[in-house]
Design goal:
Elements: E1 2-4, E2 22-26, E3 29-32, E4 45-46, E5 49-50, H1 58-71, H2 74-79, E6 82-86, H3 96-105, E7 109-112, H4 117-130, E8 136-139, H5 158-164, H6 167-183, E9 188-189, H7 214-229, E10 234-240, E11 256-257, H8 261-277, E12 282-285, E13 289-290, H9 305-315, E14 321-324, H10 330-333, H11 338-348, E15 353-354, H12 359-371, H13 377-394, H14 407-410, H15 414-427, E16 429-432, E17 446-450, H16 459-463, E18 469-471, H17 482-490, E19 495-501, H18 515-527, E20 530-535, E21 552-556, H19 561-571, E22 604-605, H20 620-631, E23 637-644, E24 647-655, H21 674-692
Parallel strand pairs: 1-23, 6-7, 6-15, 7-8, 8-9, 9-10, 10-12, 11-13, 12-14, 17-18, 17-19, 19-20, 20-21, 22-24
Antiparallel strand pairs: 2-3, 4-5, 16-21, 23-24
Domain Glycoside hydrolase family 3 N-terminal: 76-389
Organism: Candidatus [Bacteroides] periocalifornicus
Enzyme class: hydrolase
Length: 695
């Protein structure tokens, strides 16, 4: 075994909420100094133009906007407002109907849904080449391209970002997403979600929201949007005037926000006001109804001239692009013809009509209303020029087509995964630390009750790096008593670790956790000291025994492989923990709840596969030495383990326990005798000392 190491444990960083760089508490959450955020406070639209742009530099822009506008007929000017949905999962060839609408009717943009990065890039090229006026290309990528594109990078959800208490992580995420989008020829991301999730049983927002605090949402929403817009991608705050308190899914029916005006101003509108004051480029209006100072009750805000014109444009002074939510959603499409929905949205004040249907009829219907005087021609000019101005600044007079060659490789960069893992680790929230970290796993008989689907970087495989355990079933047959079965199955074990994930986003479905699972988990807490690890929505904590009844409660805000990977390490002190609940879960767990693991006490792992990352290429010489030793018969097998500041950044195993194919292969969990360990225990410290003395 060859061990390369750095002196000491700890990576030199205290958890987010234990660090001296904090700038204060916001609604129970400690927010750290935003070191990575730019100092300028305005970055986007102000009165219809991008702020900070010198007046003399607008001449070329104005000339292009005017020339394109004048060259378009009425129907072409209206068509600039239409953004069509496209799927790239079926290949790189463009959709024939969409291509026809681009060529013949001059629609203004495309929004991509499920597919792959290579297919999306190829389709982008085809659509842009067919367009007379460059197209605005968009994606709904709240947590990255991976939300829509199978091989795109994904990051933790918004609630995980807020749990870190570090807005600079949201800013960096926005920067990276913008870089990836520009590589694909995309210009608009329909993010961030700045809804204040005040209803724990919200059927559509949940962990997509940063918090149930308007101030926290405003802080993180601004940082995320700022990172994208300064990276050349237009951000879109949604879902105005706030989708966080609803109890109805607008994909199926129209929610009604029954809030007093002062509450709406103080809670839901606050993040939108904050982003407007800093120049957010686009605002998506949600399909939900409010009673705003006598405006038409029961009418969706996306179709309501009072909300869009009086509230958003006049009272809040917003000068950027206004986009409807998808017009094919049930909240506005039920009982109405698609062309009528598009007409109502355009007439109400939406600049961009998202996912319209029956596009040809809708364009004709809006043009007819303009010619009849129902829609002023000045409104058409203002909207069309606002869109053209955005195109000039995001694209230029001629579209810059993405290079399809090597696009998948370009988007598979180590720093993207590294940031996702950094956010995941910093978001981990420990709510009871009675037995966490587990100090002496060698003295425990550990039972693992897992409701997770394991992966290579899964929870259970990572536990094995720290301790042996026995897998115990947590399923109950019909008629079985949870208390009896828990006591029986845990048997001689002294500690139980229970891992459960929310497999459904709907609170009405108990987030996918069955009643039998709840009963067995709570029974485990009564039978033995039990550590509960919840992957997903923290609102699911309400189904379990209060945290103080467990020996430990750890929340990870998703079930991604890297979340499982770091959660397992946290239980044994392999990484620091400093996250805080960004939402309240009943009275027992107020917003801001959480405890710290100040310093790691055992080796941690940066990634599950520490042998294949590009940054480890400089250590391949060690691989060669081990392989040469095995080939020459010096040893039958071995392991290379490289550690820096308590973090394993390289680990690879070679050969077998003994000479011959009958011996087991060496793995990461291989145990060595004392004679094998002395070879490294004696030499490595001497090598490290020599390096420090620069010898």
């Amino acid at each position: 075994m060859l061990l390369l190491g750095g002196m000491g444990f700890g990576n030199g960083r205290r958890p987010a909420h234990a660090e001296s760089g904090a700038i204060g508490r916001i609604d129970g959450l400690t927010i750290r100094q935003q070191r990575h955020l730019p100092r300028e406070s305005s970055w986007g639209w102000q009165e219809g133009v991008f702020s900070g742009k010198p007046a003399d530099s607008l001449s070329g822009e104005n000339q292009w906007v005017d020339s394109v506008y004048n060259a378009l007929k009425l129907e072409g000017r209206i068509a600039q407002s239409f953004m069509l949905q496209v799927y790239s999962r079926e290949g790189g060839e463009p959709n024939a109907e969409v291509l026809r609408l681009v060529e013949k009717h001059g629609v203004g943009g495309i929004i991509f849904f499920q597919g792959t990065v290579a297919n999306e890039a190829a389709q982008t090229v085809a659509y842009q080449q067919a367009a007379k006026v460059p197209l605005l290309m968009a994606i709904d990528g709240e947590w990255g391209l991976g939300m829509r594109l199978a091989d795109g990078a994904s990051y933790p959800r918004a609630m995980a970002l807020a749990a870190t208490g570090e807005p600079q992580l949201a800013y960096r995420m926005g920067q990276q997403i913008a870089r990836q989008m520009r590589r694909l020829g995309l210009h608009i991301n329909f993010a961030p979600v700045v809804d204040v999730n005040t209803n724990p049983r919200n059927p559509v927002i949940g962990v997509r929201a940063f918090s149930d605090s308007p101030e926290v949402v405003a802080q993180f929403g601004l940082a995320y949007a700022q990172g994208m817009q300064q990276g050349g991608v237009l951000a879109c705050a949604k879902h105005f005037p706030g989708h966080g308190s609803v109890s109805v899914d607008s994909h199926h029916a129209l929610p009604f926000i029954n809030r007093p005006v002062d509450s709406l101003n103080r809670i839901d509108l606050l993040p939108f006001k904050h982003l407007i004051s800093h120049g957010i480029g686009m605002m998506m209006v949600g399909h939900l109804a409010i009673d705003w100072k006598g405006e038409t009750p029961g009418l969706s805000c996306s179709l309501n001239p009072g909300v869009l014109g009086t509230l958003l444009r006049t009272q809040l002074g917003y000068g950027g692009l206004i986009c409807s939510d998808a017009l094919n959603m049930g909240a506005v499409s039920n009982g109405k013809k698609p062309a009528e929905v598009a007409l109502d949205a355009y007439q109400a004040g939406c600049d961009v009509l998202l996912c319209p249907q029956d596009v040809h009829t809708a364009i004709a219907k809006i043009a007819k209303a303009v010619r009849a005087g129902a829609i002023p021609i000045q409104r058409v000019e203002t909207t069309c020029k606002r869109i053209l101005r955005a195109k000039y600044r995001l694209i230029g007079p001629k579209s810059d087509l993405p290079n399809v060659e090597g696009v998948a490789q370009d988007l598979d960069r180590p720093e993207y995964g590294n940031l996702a893992r950094e956010i995941a680790q910093h978001s981990l929230t420990l709510l009871n630390d009675s037995l966490v970290p587990i100090l002496r796993p060698d003295r425990e008989r550990i039972a693992l009750v897992s409701y997770l689907e394991e992966e290579r970087e899964g929870f259970a495989p990572t536990l094995l790096r720290y301790a042996q355990y026995t897998a115990v079933s947590g399923e109950l047959a019909e008629g079985e008593n949870a208390d009896e079965q828990a006591a029986k199955r845990l048997g001689i074990h002294t500690l139980a670790i229970v891992a459960v994930q929310t497999t459904n986003a709907l609170p009405e479905k108990n987030f996918g956790i069955s009643q039998a699972q709840m009963a067995f988990i709570n029974a485990c807490a009564k039978a033995r000291p039990t550590i509960l690890v919840l992957f997903g929505s923290p609102y699911a904590l309400q189904y379990f025994t209060p945290p103080e009844k467990f020996a430990g409660v750890l929340v990870a805000y998703g079930a991604e492989s890297y979340m499982r990977f770091f959660a397992a390490q946290a239980l044994f002190g392999g990484c620091e923990v400093g996250g805080r609940l960004p939402v309240s879960v009943g009275s027992a767990l107020p917003r801001g709840s959480g405890r710290d693991i100040i310093r790691q006490i055992r080796l941690g792992w940066r990634v599950a596969d520490c042998g294949s990352t590009p940054e480890n290429q400089y250590i391949v010489q060690a691989d060669s030495l081990v392989r040469m030793a095995i080939d020459s018969g010096v040893m039958p097998g071995g392991q290379v383990l490289a550690v820096s500041r308590g973090q394993v950044f390289y680990s690879r195993s070679f050969g077998r326990y003994g000479y011959g194919a009958s011996w087991p292969a060496v793995t990461d969990t291989t145990r060595y005798d004392i004679a094998s360990l002395t070879k490294i225990a004696a030499t490595v410290p001497l090598v490290m000392q020599a390096v420090e003395k620069k010898k």
